[in-house]
């Protein structure tokens, strides 16, 4: 065959191919002695619905290739997102890959790995040469779906799936901003926490109210109980107060009403709250000094500051929150911390607006 002159090397090709993200499977079979074989493969793809066909490709150099080349059947185990260890195990050579792995036998004795997102039991119908690989086409004979989220692979790393929250096209700009916001702000949060050496949290308005989606710890963490996914009160947390100050009232009102009704914030009434939120808006940030509302969780009284990040349309999408031991964290408007957080929030808002424009 004529050697093609290429403008890329195999490392570049691998990088480009790695930008196509996939799930992860372990393809299994048994040999003539009933011994199970399996390998991690992300070359799996659907081919046809009627008849039901799938494909995967295997390196000719894989030690298990002769087994798959001659096997009549194979099973595709689509791994769940907590099966990274299983994926690593089956991506290594070795005699005893199945030891300690819970499996059950499929209809034709194909090994089905427990805990997967889904299984397909297949009959080999064709094998095509494909360079240094062989492409196997299988007819799907049995399927099962187990309701677990799948493991993903891309860019040389394992990943987990997040639903894409792009809304209807009319709302596209705002939704892209919201989607980008957490990603961009997460990067900024790491740098900011290093620079300030403070414990920082990233808050979003979730379906249960203010929710911390990311913490970055200071070198001396304020608490070893910083939980991702922590849902905060609206009236007694700085993150909640920031959202209450800047989000449309109809979004926050049910949460505020519930907290006022259950006496979670006995010092606050509706009039006082309106004044408090107005002064937060005027200052540009929310703060609490010596709060003991989180003593149960963090084991200490805290000072805290929260600043808003806005999208292109001026809607608050994130809260950038700093917490520290009471008496230490400077919550003053002219202090270095508040000034730096405000600058970082402005920078993030500008970046989001630019990306959505
Ligand atoms: C995420 C991932 C995907 C892989 N996909 C494939 C694939 O599609 N085809 C293949 O031949 N090898 C693939 N490999 C490599 C094989 O899993 C690895 O070479 C394995 O050791 C082969 O099994 P064997 O040594 O028992 O033959 C992949 C590895 C990883 C980590």
Structural class: alpha+beta
Q: What is the CATH superfamily classification of the largest domain?
A: GAF domain
Number of alpha- plus pi-helical segments? 9
Morphology call: elongated
Low-confidence stretches: 165-170
Task: Summarize the amount of helix as a percent range.
Answer: 25-40%
The average pLDDT value, as a whole number, equals 90
How many strand units?
18
H-E order:
HEEEEEHEHEEEEEEHEEEHHHEHEEH
Strand order of the largest sheet: 3-2-6-9-10-5-4
What is the total domain count? 2
What CATH calls the topology of the largest domain is Beta-Lactamase
Supply Rg: 27 Å
Bound chemical compounds: flavin mononucleotide
Task: Describe this protein's structure.
The longest helix has 25 residues. About 2% of the residues have low confidence. The protein has a 7-stranded antiparallel β-sheet with strand order 3-2-6-9-10-5-4. The protein folds into 2 domains: 151 residues, Electron Transport, Fmn-binding Protein, Chain A (Pnp Oxidase, Chain A), CATH 2.30.110.10; 188 residues, GAF domain (Beta-Lactamase). The chain is elongated and about 80 Å long. The chain is built from 9 helices and 18 strands. With 357 residues, it is α+β, with helices and mostly antiparallel strands. The structure holds flavin mononucleotide. Flavin mononucleotide binds next to strand 3 and strand 5.
Note the main attributes of this structure.
alpha+beta; Pnp Oxidase, Chain A; Beta-Lactamase; 2 domains; six-stranded antiparallel beta sheet; 9 helices; about 30% helix; binds flavin mononucleotide
